[in-house]
Amino acid sequence: MAKKREAAREYRFSDARLQGKAGEVIQLIERDADEMEDRGVDEERKVRLIALHDSFAHFPLDQYYLGHQGIATEEKDKARARLITAVRSVFNAAENVFGAGSTPYKQLGSANLTKLSDDKLVRNTRNTVKMATKYLDDLGSEGITEAKLIEIAALNKSFDEAVDEMLTAQRNRDIATQERIDIGNALYNEIVKICNTGKDIWYELSEAKYNDYVLYNTPSGKKETEAKSEEK
Predict the structure, then answer these.
(1) pLDDT tens digit string along 183-226?
(2) Span 154-189, pLDDT tens digits
(3) SS (H, E, C) 193-206
(4) Are 159 and 83 in contact (CB under 8 A)?
(5) Which H or E element spans position 60?
(6) Listed residue (190, 173, 179, 178) closest to 18, CA to CA
(7) Rounded to the nearest 10 degrees, how much is the dihedral formed by the CA atoms of 150, 151, 154, 160?
């Protein structure tokens, strides 16, 4: 199995700051079009930067995927609760008929339903339905019928599907998180390259314009001394 690729941001400041800096750099390219074009930062390069900026700005936030994950988890938990309630009645019937220490009771599987993980609960329920069907004639006196076992099997199927939906929502969130970081990194790297070019152009010509292209990879996006002075 391939190892999961970890999301790693190459920039330390916020996504909002990255978007803002991209907008600033786009304006700088337009202001310094003649100088920039001579260094390869032409209209095509600007369009590419704008496309990266727009792609990053319009990419759904994590809250969107977190919301879907939360809804899927809630639905899974509700399905689990319904299933446990139905299966518990089978164990109660078997205890009344055979006794909790009997072989038929033990054959139903684990009665400690709330302690089972989701996947184990699915497998345990399948076994419970199978063995309850075997002892259906005896369990009938406690109200366990073929129709009820069919209903439990259906609840188990719904629960299993709800688990899959939850896991899919989790995977979609993980994938989206990586995609957003990848786009952000691509945008950041393009900004760094353009800013490096801008600084080189204005290094000996204009300190003010040189400073326009200075990019600080700090949590605030500003020079550390500036950020600290603003906190005071």
Answers:
(1) 999 999 999 999 999 999 999 899 999 999 998 887 777 775 54
(2) 999 999 999 999 999 999 999 999 999 999 999 999
(3) HHHHHHHHHHCCCC
(4) yes
(5) none
(6) 190
(7) -120
Which residues neighbour 123 within 8 Å (Cβ) at sequence distance 6 or greater?
none
> What is the rounded CA–CA span in Å between residue 134 and residue 5?
48
Cα separation of 2 and 133, whole Å?
A: 42
DSSP string, 153-209: HHHHHHHHHHHHHHHHHHHHHHHHHHHHHHHHHHHHHHHHHHHHHHHHHHTTT-HHH
Q: Is 101 helix (H, G, I), strand (E, B) or coil?
A: coil
Asked if residues 122 and 159 have their Cβ atoms less than 8 Å apart, the reply is: yes
Q: For the chain, how long is the longest CA-to-CA vector?
A: 96
Q: Which residue has the higher pLDDT, 231 or 163?
A: 163
d(CA 69, CA 67): 5
What region does 151 belong to: left with phi over 0, alpha with psi -120 to 50, or beta?
alpha
